[in-house]
Automatic annotation (TrEMBL), chains A, B:
Domain HTH marR-type: 3-140
Protein's organism: Cohnella thailandensis
Phosphoprotein keyword on record: no
Taxonomic placement: Bacteria, Bacillati, Bacillota, Bacilli, Bacillales
DNA-binding is among the record's keywords: yes
UniProt xrefs under InterPro entries: HTH_MarR-typ, MarR/SlyA-like, WH-like_DNA-bd_sf, WH_DNA-bd_sf
Protein name (Swiss-Prot/TrEMBL): MarR family transcriptional regulator
Molecular function terms from GO: DNA binding; DNA-binding transcription factor activity
An individual GO BP term: response to stress
DNA sequence: CTATCTCGTTATCAAATGACAACTAACGAG
DNA sequence: CTCGTTAGTTGTCATTTGATAACGAGATAG
């Protein structure tokens, strides 16, 4: 097993994944949302119900706490997300999508899902099951 | 086969891939290179010998031709890449890494490869072969 | 109680990025 | 040759993003 060759495949693969993600989401534009803000909304949308603190957001989105705070404030002003504080530790602020934000993201993701379904349209159920296994395998072992 | 469930797995998977890529490359800093410029260098490095025109770069990196031109000029001034024109169509400008740029990227990628190898260290050759198949399958069918 | 630490906010600044207009040069069709 | 098109450049501007300092309020250890 040539592990360096696998590395090259890995690099090419991540580039493909990135490209595909971009294709699927490039023209998803919510009002006056910047790319970074969209990233935050997507993160919140993906984490459905689990409460997320601002520090965690900051880590995951790879931005400083002050900048995260600023962008969240902007999103709050736009009515797309809301804060609520921990009942135990009052320093902690949790953040979630507002109903409005939830609705907007759900709408956006219907478009993305439609594109995804279109892309896999011609693939048989057996092959899809195989793809699902491949995704789980990779997700467990490498990513 | 629930295709919507596959969609959700797909979304989670792309997020994981993005995160992993970020982990592997976050502290790769070449001199005074901006993130966008790094993206260009990475693209050129990945495309080894195939000549790439500025318009193609512009498409793939999802930036306008004027901005691509500007960033390439900056990279040229830093001595990291170089242009040469098509002998047939003199409007076309091809772009490639300079020897210096090639060396810098090779060095950076040795670090990335080391991290990748570390991550797959405990995985047996049989499992790796399976992973390689999974990557090829996904790359062919979905991405 | 009082340091110290954590979580978050606010303000400010510089740099990076994106968008666009105006331009040159080369090609290609008629 | 002329006109329209393609490839790329230059310049300018507003916005976005990243970095950092200074601060406040709540937790926590000694």
């Amino acid at each position: 097993m040539d592990r360096s060759e696998l590395f090259r495949d890995f690099i090419a693969f991540t580039a493909s994944v990135l490209e595909t993600k971009h294709d699927f989401t490039k023209d998803i534009r919510i009002e006056g949302i910047t790319p970074v803000q969209y990233g935050i909304l997507e993160y919140l949308f993906a984490h459905r119900d689990e409460p997320v603190t601002i520090s965690e957001m900051s880590d995951c989105q790879h931005m400083s706490l002050p900048n995260t705070s600023r962008e969240l404030r902007k999103l709050g002003e736009k009515g797309l997300c809301e804060k609520f504080s921990d009942s135990e530790d009052k320093r902690k602020q949790y953040i979630r999508l507002s109903p409005e934000g939830q609705a907007r993201m759900a709408e956006a993701f219907r478009k993305v899902e439609a594109r995804f379904l279109e892309r896999i349209r011609g693939i048989s159920d057996e092959e899809l099951a195989e793809l699902a296994r491949a995704i789980r395998l990779l997700d467990g072992k490498v990513f």
